[in-house]
Amino acid sequence: MKHLITGAAGFIGAALSERLLSRGDEVVGADNINDYYDPALKHARLERLAAYPAFRFERSELADPHATAELFDPAKGCGGNYDTVVHLAAQAGVRYSIDEPHAYADSNLTAWLNVLQGCRHGQPERVVYASSSSVYGSRDTIGAGAGEPFAETDCVTRPASFYAATKMAGELMAHSYADLFGLDVAATRFFTVYGPWGRPDMALLKFTQAIHAGEPIPLFNAGKMHRDFTYIDDIVDGLEKLVDGVGSQGPGFREYNLGNGDPMPLGDLVSAIEKALGKPAKRNLLPMQAGDVPYTYADISKARRELGFEPKTLLDDGVARFVDWWLGYTGVSAPQRRAA
């Protein structure tokens, strides 16, 4: 099989690319390698992928319609004719969207439109679009200690950030192209993905770095946050099923929550890092931030039923694997692990 994966230098894009390459598939990876976070991490991910002969990288600005059209052109270097297109490229980050909304319009709307146009003409067997749990917005209370799970049937018309609004708009765009041009499109609503090679702007890496350095970590909403932390390998399991056509009924649009289905207090994440590093955290309790939500909770019953999706990784195990990767990647001294 031949796949186009946009955002291939990103966290999820690189992990999915490696999974598909390792089973013998061909991957064309596209990315503009922007500087939202240190491009060195993106280049390091690409170096791992370059070890596979079936990987081809194209540095491409997807917001440019001509550059995107070339990725789909059978007469150009990539050759087009993809079995699947997985669109993971996006401007990430909820809080950054408050200050730089135009970056989100370009990367999350215009670029996606250009990819959809390429799919319209190239007609891949399947298209996968990376959405986000952010589309669900904020829930008023956690209630009953765990909160109500977010289901694909929930109303998603009140996004709490512009980032979330662009992701919801992307789903609507995909729905229209699926109906108009006979595309098979699946949207994946990711819930707090973490693991080795993760993004530096995410809490796990920021907290790990700060705790190791003996610096305080910021806990917004006084730390009273719950997140449905989902390990990267479990996310890739779900994406691989979609790439392979599991759950497909032909042309049309469908959406899936890909999460752990078990929201954890933010304090549990901090405790897991403390255990993995063997060092206590210094906590700085702060007010809620604009655009943030107090909890996320994935109802994954649809993904279980239609895809056979079943997350397997416990938070302590996933965090320990991340810390081991981070220590090796940064070259800092290994910790004296605390006893369980």
Task: Please characterize this protein's 3D structure.
Its EC number is 5.1.3.2. Pfam families: Epimerase. The protein is an alpha/beta fold and 340 residues long. It has one domain: 3-Layer(aba) Sandwich (Rossmann fold). 40% of the residues lie in helices and 17% in strands. It contains eleven helices and 13 strands. Strands 3-2-1-4-5-6-11 form a seven-stranded parallel β-sheet, sandwiched between helices. Strands 7-10 form a two-stranded parallel ribbon. Helix 1 runs parallel beside helix 2 (39-49) and helix 7 (203-213) packs across helix 9 (266-277). The chain is globular. Mean pLDDT is 92; it is low at 141-146.
Main traits of this protein?
340 residues, 7-stranded parallel sheet, two-stranded parallel ribbon, 13 strands
